[in-house]
Design a protein that fits this description.
The chain is built from 20 helices and 30 strands. It is α/β, with parallel strands linked by helices. Strand 25 and strand 26 form a beta hairpin. The longest helix is centred in the first third of the chain and has 17 residues.
């Protein structure tokens, strides 16, 4: 069977998109905002396909060969989509870089990828244009980088490598030659390199193939009834496996994608009323907090809402037409899921996955859902629980979670040793060992208990679950949105804590009640009134959180001004980084005897 004959049964991601786009030629693929912040700018599938062809042709002008890597750093954007599609049409590999990466990490990734072309959205992140961040790296430190393709404001005179995005594709050669390369690309070839978001030190690049991502698309098809007229709200980082997979799946399934941003999401949701939403747990937690505040302001009990009131509340939040809501990237608290389900009749599907599995492993759906678990496996995915000798364990026994299926990645880029450590052959099959501890019950539901390498062992010798402490503090503290426990080899457990956006209303409300007049969150956190409130809050959390004796933190280090690197782009704490950075201050708590220290 020749390559073209395999198209329908074994397409590459590029072929899958082109087939979908051809069937929906005049349909709107993307809607973005105009200068006034209104969703007015439409891009059809025909336009997306045409511009992707031109981008692919421009890469050919730059002598890009099959397997060469193009780096890209962007928020969700049409330009990201067409550059990614264009690169993969000619067998090139996309290497995603997070917009929150600092200059040191950016330099590392560009050199690690050996990228000659770097596509960049020049937006301000933490008050600094992305292009300025790149140009702060000495040119000689990036010897392979020849071309910087920029969308957003830029001055080509600032550096000879800079070319505006529209000029890059506008000056491309004939697109007919792209088709010759398209049919040389095979499903088993690399599609994208996705870096871990860096919770455990220097990130590794996972190589996902066209076949891997197509398995994720098939998962989406099997779990939903996605129709062409559906609306999807895209605000996830496109360099993260969750955001990347969702975008490419939705494109292939023919829905319309609205580009949003985390800062404007509260306003964008009611304006769009999406049918499909995918978000990290903190998104849904913040949404629940906003709904609680709105209901409280109306002097209505959240426990006694009539059906019409529930619908009005969902409409105000932009959820009234949502048919699929997926939480991924981290564990969502059961309390958040139950709040939406029991109080509002709104179901959130909790998915579990990792970068190396493209990412889907299991999911709790409307029809198959069990509290305290992350659901059953997606179609085509197998999960087993292994002991330390790679023996498969029976139901209800804790061990390391292993995954096998078409979704398992090719390996780590330039790291064969680490690949051999985590991909093992058992019974003639490739199994990826996730590093997560968990157990399967008799019905096939998976429960995650902890990270294999994130158990704390204080001087008493007991294993203490870091995740358990984090979850209990997050649930029972009004102010601590993040918690990083510390204490291996120490007399007892301590923790670094800091707030997040979901807790700001609590801080303002309580500070004002205590006589603080400021509305500045940063300023409030430095007042003696807040210190007293925080100490009371943490002591209360310890009393109500059902902590066991060994996991109960005895002291806290509170970060009033955490740095940019403490949190990943998907809003997870970089625990190893935090523990290293604040080790001296944490160690001082053991000698000072203080219950709380605030720094920053």
């Amino acid at each position: 069977m020749d390559r073209r004959a395999k198209l329908l049964s074994q397409p590459t991601m590029a072929e899958f998109f082109l087939t979908s786009a051809s069937l929906r030629y005049g349909k709107t693929a993307y809607i973005t905002k105009d200068e006034k912040g209104r969703f007015k700018i439409h891009t059809t599938y025909a336009q997306l396909m045409d511009r992707a062809y031109r981008f692919a042709s421009a890469l050919l002008d730059d002598n890009y060969q099959t397997g060469d890597i193009m780096a890209i750093m962007s928020n969700p954007a049409v330009e990201f989509a067409l550059a990614d599609i264009g690169a993969t049409m000619i067998g090139c590999v996309t290497g995603g870089i997070f917009v929150t990466d600092g200059p040191e990490l950016l330099e590392y990734k560009l050199n690690h990828l050996e990228a000659r072309v770097f596509v960049l959205e020049n937006v301000n992140i933490h008050g600094r244009p992305q292009l300025d961040k790149l140009l702060s790296i000495p040119r000689e430190n990036l010897p392979r980088l020849d071309r910087i393709v920029v969308y957003g404001p830029c001055d080509p005179a600032a550096d000879s490598r800079i070319v505006p995005f529209e000029d890059y594709i506008g000056n491309a050669g004939p697109v007919a030659r792209v088709s010759d390369r398209l049919y040389q690309v095979a499903p088993e070839m690399p599609l994208v390199i996705i870096y871990s978001s860096g919770t455990e030190g220097r990130p590794r690049g996972a190589i996902l193939t066209h076949h891997n991502l197509m398995s994720a698309v098939r998962q989406a098809e099997s779990r939903s009834e996605t129709e062409e007229n559906r609306r999807y709200m895209d605000f996830l980082p496109p360099a993260h496996v969750f955001g990347y997979m969702m975008r490419r799946s939705i494109e292939g399934l023919g829905a319309t994608i609205y580009i949003s941003h985390r800062d404007t999401l509260a306003d964008d949701l009611p304006a769009v009323a999406p049918h499909i939403i995918a978000g990290v747990p903190k998104f849904f937690m913040a949404l629940a907090d906003r709904i609680r505040s709105r209901v409280s302001a109306m002097n209505i009990s959240i426990d006694s809402l009539e059906d019409f009131q529930k619908q009005l509340i969902l409409r105000a939040a932009g959820l009234h037409e949502c048919q699929i809501a997926i939480s991924g990237s981290a564990a969502i608290p059961d309390e958040t899921v139950l709040f939406f389900k029991d109080k509002l009749g709104f179901r959130i599907d909790q998915a579990y996955g990792v970068t190396e599995t493209s990412p889907g492993i299991t999911v709790n759906t409307r029809d198959e859902w069990k509290l305290g678990t992350v659901g059953r496996t997606f179609h085509g995915v197998d999960v087993a629980i292994f002991d330390e000798n790679m023996n498969e364990l029976p139901p209800d026994c804790e061990g390391e979670i292993g995954v096998s299926g078409d979704n398992v990645f090719l390996g780590y880029f330039k790291d064969e040793d680490r690949t051999r450590q985590v991909v093992r052959k058992v019974g003639g099959r490739r199994w990826y060992l996730t590093g997560d501890l968990g157990m399967l019950d008799e019905e096939g539901y998976l429960r995650i208990t902890d990270r294999k390498d994130d158990m704390l062992v204080p001087a008493s010798g007991e294993n203490v679950s870091s995740a358990s402490i984090e979850n209990k503090l997050a649930l029972h503290s009004r102010y601590a949105g993040y918690a990083v426990p510390y204490g291996t080899g120490r007399p007892h457990i301590t923790a670094v804590v800091w707030t997040d956006e979901t807790r700001h209303e609590n801080i303002l409300e309580d500070a004002h009640a205590a006589g603080v007049e400021s509305d500045d969150i940063a300023a409030i956190q430095r007042t003696p009134e807040f210190r007293a409130l925080l100490e009371q809050d943490l002591r209360r959390a310890l009393e109500t959180g059902d902590f066991t004796g060994h996991e109960r933190p005895r002291a806290f280090l509170y970060l009033a001004s955490p740095g940019e690197e403490e949190v990943t782009s998907t809003l997870k704490a970089r625990k190893k980084f935090v523990r290293r950075k604040y080790a001296a201050q944490l160690d001082a708590l053991y000698t000072s005897g203080a219950f709380l220290e605030i720094i920053g």
